[in-house]
Design brief:
The complex is a heterodimer. Chain A folds into two domains: 255 residues, Aconitase, domain 3; 150 residues, Aconitase, domain 3, CATH 3.30.499.10. Chain A contains 14 helices and 18 strands. In chain A, the strands form five sheets. Chain A has a five-stranded parallel beta sheet with strand order 4-3-2-5-6. In chain A, helix 11 runs parallel beside helix 14. The N and C termini of chain B lie far apart (39 Å). Chain B is an alpha/beta fold. Chain B has two domains: 138 residues, Aconitase, domain 4 (Alpha-Beta Barrel), CATH 3.20.19.10; 31 residues, no CATH class. Helices cover 37% and strands 17% of the residues of chain B. The chains are: A alpha/beta, B alpha/beta. The interface between A and B is large, with 51 and 41 residues.
């Protein structure tokens, strides 16, 4: 009899051409898309060249996004990008993003329709797991693993065990997908899903927007997860139809699938969350944060740089002013998000409020540029990591939160809930 | 694989890739440059004081965070011969094997061996010996597939071997 499988197992078995797979099994699968950025691609290119292989396996399935230090912050990063540009030209790569067509990779790729449900995606970027929101088995790898895929079009995986997370109940005001994933990481810890697949389910997930689902899948890696998967539903398929010509492969977990663990959350009890320095698992509900003055707010990134995120920030910043002690940096995640924010007048709202609007870039999230913190400074950020030195000086501090909490904090100059503004 | 002998540098749980090599230095992939800033935000003097053959001992989830291969490259280029930890983050785990940095999982050794101890490691046998205390620890055996990679000299030589076989088969048909 065929083994009942989780969503992760189902995708891997189907793609590997096997009737079934089980946790622990090593399998070899074809890859649908292989991604790298301006930091990881240079090493991949070097390794590819050293291997002495003349051509990549498929010039339509390799994506290079020059998003981390864009616009190039110094000579060394400009040289790295030049290396990538020349390689893309030489290999005739179709999907090369730099300059005006460039966005933050994990905001950009779904918009460009490059990922559809059922895909196997490897990316030399740990937040490649974002595409799990589409029901794609997508995971971060290093540059050497990626170079191997550029050569063979395949990769190997150890089939992971799956932990299922079920979200029930009704969300409180101002609680978003970001709060749910921070709460989850706070619950299980930064290695709570180490080597495991996370499957997000329940009525609350069904009601989340695609943007919020991307946010949740994006941070699976912050719990150590290999993938963060959500079963495709009508919303997923509508999104895919709007953005992609490729047919989706819609797979669902079997009802009798075996999970390592099932965790259920009553969402009516979850408040907006803030992750304190220096781990994403160091979470507190907003009511227990206390008085913490801040110097900077960042709204954007592959976690929260989509139009829905900017809409939330605009709703709060409309007719209000950023606190004079705070630099509020807002980063649309892609040119498409930027244009839509212009059309919907969000950019005007941000500028009127005294915020800074940046071009799409990873920039401050990883302490690259465009908003670095000085010694002792504190930021509330909608990004995904708050490690020591992540956004600048080793003695600076990053507090992770949703765009709603970040925007309210920008106005009040301290970590705050939108409810404190009477919203 | 040869035996390793060196001094221990101790770190805690969840040593992340931003601590191993901060992103502000990722505008290059030159191992020598990266080595200069290895562990800088946790121990600013580490890169200067570490000696070839030294060993890092750390808690759980070592290498969590980014997929940057610069992390194992920086550790290896700094001269560290082996990292012993309670557990490793999964992307770092693959990257370490792919870049030829020896890593060993041994919760007991990782919890007990102290800073500055002299340690001898036999990777083949999976034995870690704390020469300062005389205590011996067994580590998790290296999985067979990873051993095969190490035998071929890393992932890329392994792939090249397979690629050449593929080409020969194509030509034959």
């Amino acid at each position: 009899m065929k083994r009942a499988m989780t969503l992760a197992e189902k995708i891997l078995a189907t793609k590997a051409g096997l009737t079934s797979v089980e946790p622990g099994q090593l399998i070899d699968v074809p890859v649908d898309l292989a991604l790298a950025n301006d930091i990881t691609a240079p090493i991949t290119i070097k390794i590819f060249r050293e291997a002495g292989i003349p051509k990549v396996w498929d010039r339509e399935k390799i994506v290079l996004v020059m998003d981390h230090f864009t616009p190039n912050k110094d000579i060394a990063s400009a040289e790295q990008v030049r290396l990538c540009r020349e390689f893309a030209k030489e290999q005739g790569l179709i999907h090369y993003y730099e300059g005006g067509n460039c966005g933050i990779e994990h905001v950009l790729l779904p918009e460009e329709g490059l990922v559809v449900p059922g895909d196997i995606v490897v990316g030399a970027d740990s937040h490649t797991c974002t595409y799990g929101a589409l029901g794609a088995f997508a995971t971060g790898v290093g540059s050497t693993d990626l170079a191997a895929t550029w050569i063979t079009g395949r990769t190997w995986f150890r089939v992971p065990e799956t932990i299922k997370f079920v979200y029930r109940g009704k969300l409180r005001p101002w609680v978003t997908g970001k709060d749910l994933i921070l709460y989850t990481i706070g619950d299980i810890g930064v290695d709570g899903a180490l080597y495991k697949a996370m499957e997000f389910s329940g009525e609350v997930i069904r009601r989340l927007s695609m943007a919020e689902r991307f946010t949740m899948a994006n941070m699976a890696i912050e719990a150590g997860g290999k993938v963060g998967l959500i079963e495709p539903d009508k919303k997923t398929l509508n999104f895919v139809r709007r953005h992609s010509q490729r047919p989706p492969l819609v797979l669902k977990a079997d009802r009798k699938a075996q999970y390592l663990e099932v965790r259920e959350y009553d969402c009516s009890k979850i408040e907006p969350q803030v992750a304190f320095p220096h781990l994403p698992s160091n979470t507190k509900p907003i009511s227990e944060v206390g008085h913490i003055d801040i110097d900077q707010v960042v709204i954007g990134s592959c976690t929260n740089g989509r139009i829905e995120d900017l809409a939330l920030a605009a709703k709060i910043l409309k007719g209000r002013k950023v606190n004079p002690n705070v630099r509020a940096i807002i980063i649309p995640g892609s040119p498409r998000v930027y244009r839509e924010a212009l059309r919907k007048k969000y950019i005007e709202v941000f500028l009127e409020a005294g915020a800074i609007v940046s071009p799409p870039t990873c920039g401050p999230c990883l302490g690259g540029h465009m908003g670095i913190l000085a010694k002792g400074e504190r930021a509330v950020s909608t990004t995904n990591r708050n490690f020591v030195g992540r956004m600048g000086h080793p003695e600076s501090e990053v507090y992770l939160a949703s765009p709603a909490v970040a925007a309210a904090s920008a106005v009040l100059g301290r970590i705050a809930s939108p409810e404190e503004l009477g919203l | 694989m040869e035996k390793i002998r060196g001094r221990v540098w101790r770190f805690g749980h969840d040593v992340d890739t931003d601590v191993i090599i901060p992103a502000r230095y990722l505008n290059t992939s030159d191992p020598k440059e990266l080595a200069k800033h290895c562990m800088e935000d946790a121990r600013p003097d580490f890169a200067k004081k570490v000696r070839p053959g030294d060993i890092i001992v750390a808690g759980k989830n070592f290498g969590c965070g980014s997929s940057r291969e610069h992390a194992p490259i920086a550790i290896k280029a700094a001269g560290v011969a082996c990292v012993v930890a309670e557990s490793f983050a999964r992307i770092f785990y693959r990257n370490a094997f792919n870049t030829g940095l020896l890593i060993l999982e041994s919760p007991e050794a990782a919890r007990e061996i102290e800073e500055g101890h002299e340690v001898e490691i036999d990777p083949e046998a999976g034995i870690i010996k704390d020469l300062t205390t005389g205590k011996t620890y067994k580590c998790q055996p290296i999985p067979p597939f990873m051993r095969e990679l190490l035998k071929d000299g890393g992932l890329i030589p392994h792939i090249k071997k397979k690629y050449q076989q593929m080409r020969l088969e194509e030509e034959a048909s």
